[in-house]
Specification:
eight-stranded mixed sheet; 16 strands; L-fuculose-1-phosphate Aldolase; Aldolase_II/adducin_N
């Protein structure tokens, strides 16, 4: 799917998104349900008791406005609360309900994740509601959820149950769902290695108020074969990152140096899962491809390339285990296994706000490290070829995960200085 979502039939939209949710481990074979209400007032919804891992468009049920059910299965048993949400919030056109592990963790301890973990999470998810427990599939559950949605929430934690979210379309609902689960995961992992820090509303508002100066447009543009090849490479890596949970639909930027200081970069406000080759933005001689808006982080990428001739690709993203270090004051020590140290060496951590354009922070622009964590915001990975940069990102996330998981076993014992020096000599790093 793409931003041209209105031209995709609801049954195809639902089949695509439920597949993504299942493959990412955010629901089970039997759990979760998705619906879309169309312009006629008919609701398209996932069926009851059909394998979510192999759901096809033909399995999707249509519940007509008059209550008539069309399809070869029964509609989801949770259809009553989908219907109740649409009745109280007519501007919402899609609803997702599932039991993703991190959000269920909050559900069973009866807490709400603090979306001030990052400006993106707060901006996309907004305040989160809370619905008391009622019997699944009951009208009473629908009434309680509808009352929460009446308060203006677009995302709700369901007590001892999971979460339910709404959106202006299915892309919007999925973006909110994926972002909230990422937020919850990061907080959970952060609590295992330290104490999560949260941004103030003032800090978030200051960041969001930044409007990058729009680059002038290129008058004429040519698409050389090597340029087209690099566009395709970016699309493949971004999709791969989404599939592995290293990017989410609402956040993640990738770029490659194309010619001297010219570059190709992902756009702003385009679903990362559905990135197409024509979405990539060419920036040449400080000008942008006509009719396209590059990532708001384009200035950081441009400056890194200017200051670091050996850097030819950059990934800026949020991944949950790395961001566990990004939301705490815990040092990310990569002296875990030889590969981690050889690839990453020392990972710098910068305070939130030092990535604002107004500060022009040289620690970011000089890219002295392969990986740099910006607290409560992102991780920046640099490298030569894009696949190599992606590999560094994977190594960094795996290393962070090992440390987080190992915390329950005991204190980490890193490689000692002598072992690190042997690696330095052997691999000339």
């Amino acid at each position: 799917m793409s931003e041209k979502i209105k031209f995709v039939h609801p049954r195809d939209q639902i089949a695509t998104i439920i597949s993504r949710i299942y493959k990412r481990g955010m629901t089970t074979t039997s759990g979760g349900n998705i619906s879309i209400i169309d312009a006629n007032g008919d609701v398209w919804v996932t069926p009851s008791a059909v394998d979510k891992g192999s759901l096809k468009p033909s399995d999707i049920i249509c519940v007509k406005k008059d209550g008539t059910v069309i399809g070869k299965h029964k509609p989801s048993s949770e259809f009553p609360f989908h219907k109740a949400i649409y009745q109280v919030r007519p501007e919402l056109k899609s609803v997702i309900h599932a039991h993703p592990p991190a959000l269920v963790s909050f559900s069973i301890v009866r807490q709400i994740p603090n979306t001030n973990m990052s400006s993106q999470a707060k901006n996309i998810c907004g305040p989160i509601g809370y619905a008391d427990y009622e019997l699944p599939g009951s009208e009473e559950l629908g009434d309680i959820i509808a009352e929460e949605f009446k308060k203006g929430y677009k995302a709700i934690i369901m007590e001892n149950h999971g979460t339910v979210l709404g959106g202006s379309d299915l892309n919007d609902a999925f973006k909110r769902f994926e972002t909230l689960e990422f937020c919850a995961s990061t907080i959970l992992y952060g609590t295992q290695i330290g104490t999560p820090n949260y941004l103030t509303d003032i800090q978030i508002n200051e960041f969001e108020a930044q409007v990058p100066a729009m680059l002038p447009e290129i008058d004429g543009i040519e698409y050389a074969s090597d340029e087209v090849e690099k566009r395709l490479e970016i699309c493949k890596i971004v999709k791969r990152a989404c599939e592995q949970g290293l990017m989410i639909s609402s956040f993640g930027t990738a770029s490659v140096r194309w010619n001297e200081n010219d570059l190709l970069i992902t756009p702003t406000n385009v679903n990362r899962w559905d990135l197409a080759i024509e979405d990539i933005v060419q920036i040449k001689d400080g000008k942008r491809e006509k009719g396209k808006t590059p990532s708001r982080a384009a200035w950081i990428h441009q400056e890194i390339y200017k200051n670091n001739p050996k850097v030819n690709s950059i990934i800026m993203t949020q991944s949950p285990y790395l961001m566990a270090f990004g939301v705490t004051d815990t040092h990310f020590d990569v002296r875990t296994i030889p590969e981690s140290w050889i690839f990453l060496q020392d990972v710098e951590a910068l305070k939130y706000g030092e990535h604002f354009k107004a500060t022009n922070n040289q620690d970011i622009l000089n890219a002295n490290s392969t990986a740099t964590i910006i607290q409560n915001d992102s991780v920046i990975i640099t490298g030569d070829q894009l696949l190599q940069t992606f590999d560094y990102l994977e190594v960094a996330e795996f290393s962070a995960k090992s440390i987080v998981l190992g915390t329950s076993l005991g204190k980490m014992t890193p490689m000692n200085n002598e072992q690190v020096e042997d690696l330095r000599k052997k691999f000339l790093v």
